[in-house]
Write a structure and sequence with these properties.
about 130 residues, about 30% helix, alpha/beta, 5 strands
Length: about 130
């Protein structure tokens, strides 16, 4: 009688079968998955800004000013800005505030102003963009 020897090799056929099944599953399910997309508004679709809105202007040198019904007030810092906004919104607390940032200003500065406005309780905040024709 002949003695059986153990083979010291790996049988890869079951692994290949599993990998092919997984490949088919991924190929079938991949087209069904929806990818997240961000609908960035283009400047061609801009809506008219409300006439009664306050405008916070942020210039390229990060200086701030407040435009209220055609009157522009230059402000020294964040404290003056939020005091001026609270004074302007005293009559109508639902009055919207638009942030007008220069295209060369850092995004962090715009976010800082936006965050501070939200912390002051301003509910209606928007970003103003110019149509491409201007």
């Amino acid at each position: 009688m002949r003695e059986r020897r153990l083979k010291n090799e790996i049988n890869v056929v079951p692994y290949i079968d599993v990998m092919l099944v997984l490949l088919v599953i991924f190929m079938v399910t991949a087209p069904m998955m929806t990818t997240a997309s961000i609908d960035v508004p283009s400047v061609g679709k801009t809506a008219q800004a409300p006439a009664e809105a306050l405008q916070v202007n942020i210039r390229a040198d990060e200086s701030l000013s407040l435009m209220d019904q055609g009157t522009e007030t230059r402000l020294g810092g964040d404290g003056e800005l939020f005091q001026a906004i609270s004074n302007a919104r005293a009559k109508d607390p639902r009055r919207p505030v638009l942030i007008v940032g220069d295209k060369n200003v850092k995004y962090a500065v715009v976010l800082k102003v936006l965050d501070e406005l939200q912390s002051q309780g301003v509910e209606r905040i928007g970003l103003l963009v110019q149509p491409s024709g201007k």
